[in-house]
Amino acid sequence: MRDAVRTPEQPTGTDTGRFSILVVDDSSEARDAARRALERANFTVSEAHDGDEALTAVAVVRPDLVLLDLAMPGMGGLEVLTQIRRTSDLPVIVLSGRGEESERVVALEMGADDYIVKPFLVRELPARIRSVLRRARPAPSKALEFGPLEIRLAEREVLLDGRRVETTAKEFDLLARLASEPRRVFSRDQLLEMVWGSSRDWQDPATVTEHIRRLRRKIEDDPEQPRWLQTVRGVGYRFEP
Questions:
Q1: CATH code for the domain in which residue 59 is found
Q2: Domain assignment present for 5
Q3: Which segments of the chain are extended strands (E)?
Q4: CB atoms within 10 A of CB 92
Q5: Are residues 112 and 48 part of one domain?
Q6: Is residue 82 part of a domain?
Q7: Do 191 and 98 belong together in one domain?
Q8: How far apart are CA 68 and CA 183, in angstroms?
């Protein structure tokens, strides 16, 4: 790992009760501001100033969460996010100086757990990180079984007729959320809040619709007449066991 990656002097949150945050930004001023805010909130902080160093730090430091700037020279933030998501569900919060809805949607669709527009509020940043970390806690070691469909919560796996179904992190979270309370109807706004930690104020509810469509294509015999993921017209969606 190159010298520019600053690593914490203490063990990560797993060992000490303090969570370890990797701050990735090409601006030293932005990294310093994030470090000060997070250390005051009792987080352990590591730093990387570009995409290559970020991926190295993810492997070596093993942070609990990555705070990732989008606009970096060389390997940009979205490419870093893509590389992380190929092998890990490590929580990632995107930082960006641009607040356009289209950019937020792209980052969230690619697997970001949250999106914060710079400049951020000093008190808001630790709160948003804690919220994402709470959602990322390991699920109870059990499975939800519905005939040929099995949802293994701890392993984050979906099996259909004994064969593994490949899902993205958000597809799994959405399916598990619905299946955990069979027959309960959830609105798209509720699912945005529960699964994405978001709201229609800054994320299109169509995100939920698109993820439902993708899941149906993966687990339903007939996606047009779904057995499990049902639409409740004018309200939202439910899982029918």
A1: 3.40.50.2300
A2: no
A3: 20-24, 44-48, 65-69, 92-96, 114-117, 143-146, 149-152, 157-160, 163-165, 186-187, 229-232, 236-239
A4: 26
A5: yes
A6: yes
A7: no
A8: 38
115 and 153 share a domain? no
Sheet holding 65-69, edge to edge: 44-48, 20-24, 65-69, 92-96, 114-117
Beta strands 236-239 and 229-232 are: antiparallel
What ranges make up the beta strands (E) of 139-192? 143-146, 149-152, 157-160, 163-165, 186-187
Residue 109 tokens read as: 């669709």
In a domain, 113, yes or no: yes
Tell me: do 126 and 194 sit in the same domain: no
Rounded to whole angstroms, the Cα distance separating 81 from 92 reads 8
User: What is the signed CA dihedral for 94, 85, 9, 41, rounded to 10 degrees?
Assistant: 40
Q: What are the pLDDT digits (tens) for 86-125?
A: 888 899 999 887 767 778 888 888 889 989 888 778 788 9
CA distances from 66 to 132, 172, 233 (A): 11, 20, 38
165 and 131 together in one domain: no
* Residue pLDDT, tens place only, 43-88: 999 999 999 999 999 988 899 999 999 888 888 889 999 999 888 8
CA-only gyration radius of the chain, Å = 19
**Count of domains observed in the chain:** 2
Structure tokens at 126: 């630790």
Question: Cβ neighbours of residue 128 under 8 Å, at least 6 residues apart?
Answer: 93, 114, 116
CA distance 5 to 225: 52
Domain end, chosen from 135, 153, 172, is at 135
In this prediction, residue 140 has a pLDDT band, given cuts at 50, 70 and 90, of low
Q: Are residues 127 and 147 in the same domain?
A: no
